[in-house]
Amino acid sequence: MNSKVRNIKKILLSDNWYTLNKVVFDYKMPDGQWVEQARESYDRGNGAAVLLYNKKKQTVVLISQFRMPTYLNGNKTGLMIEVTAGLLDGDDPQTCVIKEAEEESGFRVKKVEKVFEAYMSPGAVTEIIHFYIAEYQESDKVSEGGGLAAEQEDITVLELGFEEALNMIYTGEIKDAKTIMLLQHLNIHNSLK
Length: 193
Fold this sequence. Notes:
Nucleoside Triphosphate Pyrophosphohydrolase, single chain, alpha+beta, 4 helices
């Protein structure tokens, strides 16, 4: 427990999609004074993401899908190029990424490697994401992917050359933080060599 935080009160603002709370608390400043602060905290659960890569072909598998928040913030099409990912929804992170990879990309990977965890927007969102990489083979392709109709997903699967995908960060075609982090991880660690 943090001894600089006390008297935490949560006020529910919305639980329509996920949970948005206003959190009021006392915080002890460096000079010893206690001040009341208020923050909004969005809880959507924790997630996991996986970047599929093929050493022999020097490729990665990404997906493209519509994201309303990016559309509202100036992304003219709302389409984002991303790694496969999803909320844990009661699964452990490894089970989640294996399931999401198959649902979204059509590849059933057998072995995944956890590389790190990160909070993506710690000032407002409680979510921590578990990041994985997984090598795929052509024989791992079990479906066309595209997501689940029950979840109203409309996903396009993209198999790209690794260098092309890396360059898409710098051209602005890839703006998703999860994807940038995992592509850079592969690059830094020479995972495709």
